[in-house]
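so im writing up the methods section and need the Hpt domain-containing protein record in one place, dumping it here so i stop losing it
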Amino acid sequence: MMADDRIAARMAVLRAKFVAELADDRAALRRHRTAALDKDELGAILHRLAGRGGTFGFTRISELAGRLEALCAEDAIEGSEAARLFDALDAAMTSLVESEA
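--- predicted struct ---
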């Protein structure tokens, strides 16, 4: 197997793992909406989603998570803009999980 093929195969495995983990991340974000997660925990989830989403080509998830991460860092995660972004991120994550099932 060529090196490029091995890299592509490994990326496919990592991409599938990312999609599989979205359900847990989505549940954690929903918990935040009802019980307010620790800011550091929430920031870590959003940072991970922003980075991995971008790595695997899920630009909408990456963009939304990045914007929410910035709001979290500014202590502005409870406002109406954050609520709109959380809804959009949840919808994007749900759509991806359903399309990959």
